[in-house]
Amino acid sequence: MDDPGNLTFPKSLYDIHRVNFYRSYLKELKRAINDGANVTGYFAWSILYNFEWLLGYTSRFGLVNVDHNDLKRYPKLSAYWKARLWSLRNFLIGNDRYINQLVSVKFALVYIQELPESVTDSDIARKSAEVKLESDTTNGAENIND
């Protein structure tokens, strides 16, 4: 899911289309699990922009916006949404918020295999991973059916 190329920097951080995509995807994943699929994990592709063979770095579909001039990272709305899900590790599975039926989901841990060469880049990478989570009105669960 690529960001439209005509979005300005501040507008590209508000990627509600990606949040809706992940929400829909997780609903279908839940349906597959209920139908007996053996699901052992789930991950988002991709956290940062990566190099695409035909498009280079112009295809921007990551959860974090990278400024290629100074390498600063800016988490998008989808990054905050996914971070909240990863921290909660459970979801409400009914439309009725009063039914507190939870299903656990296993997530792969994301880690950096190689740190950037300079301390400055390392600090930027570390800082980009820090996400402040807001309290959830659903008592610690994300309702993926909304």
Lay out the secondary structure.
Blueprint: H1 9-12, H2 16-34, E1 64-66, E2 73-75, H3 77-88, E3 90-92, E4 102-104, H4 119-128, E5 142-143
Parallel strand pairs: 3-5
Antiparallel strand pairs: 1-2, 3-4
Helix pairs in contact: 2-3
Mind explaining what this structure looks like?
- This protein is an alpha+beta fold.
- The chain has one domain.
- Helix content is 31%, strand content 10%.
- It is built from four helices and five strands, in the order ααββαββαβ.
- Strands 4-3-5 form a three-stranded mixed sheet.
- About 34% of the residues have low confidence.
**What is the tally of helical segments?**
4
Provide mean pLDDT, rounded.
Answer: 63
Count of all domains: 1
Biggest sheet strand order reads 4-3-5
Task: Summarize the amount of helix as a percent range.
Answer: 25-40%
Major β-sheet profile: 3 strands, mixed
Order of helices and strands: HHEEHEEHE
Strand % is 5-15%
Assembly state here? single chain
| Number of DSSP-assigned strands | 5
Shape: elongated
Q: What's the end-to-end separation, in Å? A: 21 Å
- Regions with little confidence, pLDDT below 50 for 5+ residues: 92-141
> What integer value in Å does the Rg equal?
17 Å
Report the structural category: alpha+beta
Family: Belongs to the glycosyl hydrolase 1 family.
Protein name: Beta-glucosidase
InterPro entries: GH (IPR017853), Glyco_hydro_1 (IPR001360)
Pfam families: Glyco_hydro_1
